[in-house]
Design a protein that fits this description.
- Helices cover about 70% and strands about 0% of the residues.
- It has about 240 residues and is mostly helical.
- The longest helix is centred in the N-terminal third of the chain and has 31 residues.
């Protein structure tokens, strides 16, 4: 493995770990402090997640592209801007980092490290919600690239914050996040049996988002803002 690839995979792993530590940890903290007020707990969870995404994308995009999401890596490969040979390593780094983030959150709050979620999240409405959430995430990325690439971190963070509230499933929009959240029986959890349908909906939404983006912004690809700086073509 080259040093450059190792740096990219480390960035994807660390970014995914911090993202999940934030999703799960803020959910635990919010549930403890909200005293049964689920709306307040969700608000705190959404704020923390959106803010962390802004930070992580800002600092790690120049290294790995800051995907933290197998659906985003898939879109980038479909756009022929990420080698297919790198998709599996990226996804492995994202999934392993996400699981590490869940374990870290459990450890910080003195909870059992190994858990299985019992929170049921299923049904056509939630599956549609996951497709819409991932479609919108991809479209957000593409729109920023086409018009204002430097706004991508803030736009993604704001989109996820909003999607927590208008999406029926609270917007997982990420297969690695979905898998990792099945391993926590806390506020952010999802029952393992419910994850396959969520992931299928997310991948479908991502592909549809790419198709819509190509129509809206022809010639602009998702990878232009998500590729490492050293891999981008020089500007004319």
């Amino acid at each position: 493995m080259s040093a450059l690839l190792a740096r990219r995979l480390l960035a994807e792993c660390l970014g995914s770990a911090f993202l999940l530590a934030t999703v799960v940890g803020s959910g635990i903290m919010a549930a403890q402090l909200a005293q049964g007020n689920v709306a307040l707990a969700l608000l705190c969870n959404a704020l923390a997640t959106g803010a962390m995404l802004v930070v992580l994308i800002t600092i790690l995009a120049p290294i790995s592209g800051a995907h933290f999401n197998p659906a985003v890596s898939l879109v980038t490969a479909l756009d022929r801007r990420l080698a297919w040979s790198l998709v599996a390593p990226y996804v492995a780094a994202q999934a392993s980092g996400a699981i590490l983030g869940v374990l870290l959150a459990h450890a910080m709050f003195d909870l059992p490290l190994l858990q299985v979620s019992t929170t049921v999240r299923t049904g056509p409405g939630q599956w549609l919600g996951e497709a819409v959430a991932t479609f919108g995430l991809v479209l957000t990325i593409l729109g920023c690239i086409a018009q204002a690439p430097k706004t991508t971190p803030a736009a993604v963070g704001l989109y996820i914050f909003a999607a927590y509230w208008f999406i029926s499933s609270t917007s997982f929009a990420n297969p690695a996040v979905t898998i990792a959240r099945a391993l926590t029986d806390t506020f952010a959890g999802i029952a393992p049996a419910d994850t396959p349908a969520f992931i299928a909906a997310q991948l479908a939404g991502a592909v549809l988002g790419l198709a819509a983006g190509r129509v809206l912004w022809p010639g602009v690809t998702s990878a232009d803002a998500l590729r490492p700086v050293e891999a981008r073509p020089p500007r004319a």
